[in-house]
Amino acid sequence: MRQFDVTTTFETSSEQLWALLQDASLLSKLTSFPKVTLVGDGASVEGNVVQLRIGIGPVSLPWNSVITLAGDRAFCDQGVKLPFPFKRFCHVHRVETREGRAVMIDEVTFDSYLPNVLVERFVLRSMFKSRATAFQNILNS
């Protein structure tokens, strides 16, 4: 298993940032690679199963997660049906206020059929970086 955190600060309120995180349908708009499509309900409430389709070229693969924990400005999505190369995936989303700004903390724990360090570096880190840029664009619009 490999664990890493991504912390991103935004010039907005934590309430506004938290509101954006409450709907998984936003993933379709925020993620340019891979292409993400929400199938069904995307509410980030405990017990909900979030079903996604991950498109890589002409192939579309399922990514299903269950929201296993939801609390005060935090929730966890636990992968239950994952595309290659993932064996396990757990993502805790948290929003905090620091020095008057909203801070999004992503705590990711995963295991892969490929070397975890390579998946983190070449897939996940770039995905989270582009997602942060997309969040900033939405908040600035």
TrEMBL record:
<protein>
    <recommendedName>
        <fullName>SRPBCC family protein</fullName>
    </recommendedName>
</protein>
<dbReference type="InterPro" id="IPR023393">
    <property type="entry name" value="START-like_dom_sf"/>
</dbReference>
